[in-house]
Amino acid sequence: MSSTSPHVLVITCPAQGHVIPLLEFSQCLAKLGCRVTFVNSEFDHGRVLKSLEGKNYIDEKIHLVSIPDGMELCEDRNDLGKLISSIFEVMPGKLEKLIEDINGREDEKISCVIADGNMGWAIELAAKMKIRRAIVWPSSAASVALPSSIPKLIDDGIINSNGTPIKKEMIQFAPNMPAMNSADLFWAHAGDLNTQKIVFNFMVGNVKAMEVADFLFCNSTYDLEPAAFTMLAEILPIGPLLASNRLGNSAGYFWPEDSDCLKWLDQQQLNSVIYVAFGSFTILDKIQFQELALALELCNRPFLWVVRPGLTNDKNDAYPEGFQERVGTRGRMISWAPQQKVLSHPSIACFLSHCGWNSTVEGVSNGIPFLCWPYFADQLLNENYICEIWKVGLNFNKNESGIITREEIKNKVVQVLGDQNFKARALELKEKTLELCQRRWFL
Length: 443
Prior knowledge:
This protein is of the alpha/beta class. It has 16 helices and 15 strands. The longest helix has 24 residues, at about 80-105. It comes from Melia azedarach (Chinaberry tree).
């Protein structure tokens, strides 16, 4: 490795939906000849290493390192208020020490700090240390438009200075951008009122950090979000950040993949399988979990369902009695999937998704229709892209008890698979995305 190669430090927000695209971006930088020090939290670093055991998925130019997030191993990292407070208390000092140690070594000096858009404090630290700096937003451009518009939302009397909605109304920042209910702003579903304020202030700080960044990137494409990129002209689209674009394997998962599910998919008919996956944060109560299970049974189609540890809040067996026996080999439940490979498999008919941005662009890039089940944050915005702007999927309606019933799920599966316009539009969107990827500067 040449000592003259640029040495880039990349730091990710401690969440799987952030680690995967930032690590993929690092792989692209390594392909260009950069040396990369990839910084994760100690907790997530250990999980990533465990999932990579026996796999050669990381470029040799990438050095995976970690710093503590300030929380104990047993503490709940889904408590966003506590996690954010702990990050601010501990990680800046640890990162500064890491950079100083690296810069003290011969031919190792950091050329640039690249931070996840949700780690704006790292950009301010790089500015203080007089190091070039760039932000990568792992989410959509529209999701950047929301926090960037906070001052206007306050001036227009839609929210107060703490982010609390003053009036309930639909917000649309520009034509052809997804609309959003003021009651569903990203911080509104983060927890109790104190947590919502912490998350709101966290987002305000991240927007402020954009002012001192030398470069701003986003894991999206102009063809997917022309209105958003017109509104945010200073942000460069570099997405979708997918391993398949460089003919590689995706890395950054927190759980070991069940690659045997690909052999099961090989045995299924073309365009027949419902793929169900909710990402790393979604939690379903037992009633809702069982309604989903019974809906998959009612659909009488093959299904692949990712039931990760912690998906349901019931620590015991949450499946309906006799469910696994009744569905037999028609259904396959696994703890984690090699999702990019699953979605590119010809047997997949549709994607029942929580609408995280990684899942969204992975589905779009493979021409897959969606069934949308968002949980929080930007997922509700992505749902509106899928259903209202791109028209490549349908969402679900809840009953008076707040449950998505088995009948509702089955009916929407029938609708999305019975109307070929969904598949046709999904394939059109895929072609636009692939055409752009073939011209991408890092390929």
